[in-house]
Design brief:
Helix content is 32%, strand content 24%. It is of the alpha/beta class and 313 residues long. Helix 4 (197-227) packs across helix 5 (263-275) and helix 5 (263-275) crosses helix 6 (284-293).
């Protein structure tokens, strides 16, 4: 099952990151057997809606840009690569716009194609810029007192040299004027006060992975019993593009960072992968199986698309 978050984390020229969408790309087919001036391009990707008129004029510059032009009052500096291909390809990543074009296509025809798809290109450039901002904001500064999501709730990491290992504790009793439920739980790490960021990160990550394995084993057993299927083993995954996978041999792999989401979302991914032990496809029959396990699976899967997870360096 593809992961949004997996491509999103490392912010490649799209996932997830670990936890975001796949690369925005488009191919414009230009056929010219005689290598004369190409005819009007044939669009083979879906046509996007026009970009919002209220978008402020701005500049988008690829670090390897060797050409630029103005698209709807926005300066777009792009990287042009020549290749042995029959189409013009646009790839919009966190660095900006890259254009892959056949050697025989002239600059004028390339820029005409860019102008024709200006709305699509600008929208993707804006989305990538916003995505980069979200990722930067989600980057974890590993220190005493940081907050992290755990099973849909917030936990606070505290360094406690007296603790043994990592221990999740309930909040201390709060004054009567403040509901005790408003205070987050604490993950107390048995580390010195001067622990390095890497020590803190490694300790937190190890604890999260242990919690993930324990939870996944329980929930897989629960849903496998309901569905009447047998899995052979459960493994933790750190895949860049998938939240989970199921093989015909019965092996289930689940991304350990699902532990950040609420239980309903975790259950959805588990139900999804176990349903593949009945149907190794995404046919209507497959989704009917998922629906028998989770009638409201659409709402449970929504956080996988929309929630930005903390970025672990």
């Amino acid at each position: 099952m593809p992961s949004r978050a997996a491509a999103d984390r490392q912010a490649p020229a799209i996932q997830l990151s670990l936890f975001d969408a796949p690369t925005a790309a488009m191919d414009l087919q230009i056929e010219s057997p005689t290598r004369t001036r190409p005819t009007e391009p044939v669009i083979v990707a879906p046509t996007a809606r026009p970009i919002a008129a209220e978008l402020d004029p701005s500049e988008f510059r690829h670090p390897q840009a060797d050409r630029e032009l103005r698209l709807n009052d926005h300066v777009v500096a792009y990287s042009l690569r020549r290749a042995r291909r029959r189409s013009i390809g646009f790839v919009v990543g966190v660095d900006g716009l890259r254009v892959n074009a056949p050697r025989w296509v002239g600059i004028g025809d390339i820029e005409n194609a860019l102008r024709e798809k200006a709305g699509w290109i600008l929208r993707k450039l804006v989305e990538q810029r916003e995505r980069a901002g979200r990722l930067q904001a989600a980057r974890v500064e590993w220190r005493d007192g940081i907050s992290l999501p755990f099973l849909g709730q917030t936990i606070v990491v505290k360094l406690d040299p007296s603790a043994r290992g990592a221990v999740l504790v309930e909040p201390e009793a709060a004054p009567t004027s403040v509901p005790s439920s408003s205070a987050p739980r604490q993950l107390r790490l048995g580390l010195p006060r001067d622990a390095t960021p890497q020590q803190i990160r490694d300790s937190v990550q190890s604890w999260l992975q242990r919690q993930a394995r324990e939870l996944f084993e329980k929930r897989c057993q629960h849903y496998a019993t309901r569905l009447g299927v047998r899995y052979t083993r459960i493994g933790l995954s750190s895949a860049q593009t998938r939240w989970g996978s199921a093989s015909a041999s019965g092996a289930i792999r689940l991304h350990w960072r699902l532990i950040h989401f609420g239980l309903a979302t975790v259950d959805y991914v588990i139900a999804h992968e176990l349903a593949h032990l009945r149907e190794m496809n995404h046919s209507p029959r497959f989704w009917d199986i998922v629906r028998t396990l989770m009638p409201d699976y659409e709402s449970a899967m929504s956080p996988l698309k929309n929630q930005v997870l903390p970025v672990f360096d």
